[in-house]
Predict the structure.
Amino acid sequence: MALTKAEMAERLFLDVGLNKREAKEFVDAFFESVRDALERGEQVKLSGFGNFDLRFKNQRPGRNPKTGEEIPISARRVVTFRPGQKLKVRVEAYAGSGEQ
Amino acid sequence: MTKSELIEALSARQQHLAANDVELAVKSLLEQMTHALAEGDRIEIRGFGSFSLHFRPPRMGRNPKTGDAVALPGKHVPHFKPGKELRERVNGSTAPIVESEDE
């Protein structure tokens, strides 16, 4: 089961005591604030969880996978995520379900 | 932007919430996300992106000090794929890129 905004809001209602409307708005505002910062060109560092970095990628050759036609991939700015130490350690311990 | 700056930004945005609740809520969200990934679950946030695990197979590594070969077990690493809205907003921006100071 994937974690979704609805489930996150439910936990804010149960654990933090925000009412359901506040909780839903808060989850939206959280992701919007991170997007906002990245759109403003700001790296986002959430210690323990990870960093959202911005990188510039030059134009490079690409291909339409369906037709095989060569088309350049234009230069662009992208977000990359670098997991923090705490997240890495907790995820490494996951043994796997065999269904990945 | 650091975690404490994110808490400040959210407090300014959600003025009806107590500052302490904003901090607790941010910590709760980050813990929920960490917990989901630690359990092998995905995180799917439309317009922001999805987090999943990638498997790194076992490999032979080396102790950089002694040069001895060491068997490294397979492991999972977190992976983030930005969603469409985030990709488009970031790529459409011409603001200079700034790195955040440590907290």
In short: Chain A touches chain B through 59 residues (CB under 8 Å). The longest strand of chain A covers residues 50-57. The beta strands of chain A are 44-46, 50-57, 60-63, 70-73, 76-83. The CA atoms of residues 53 and 80 of chain A lie 5 Å apart.
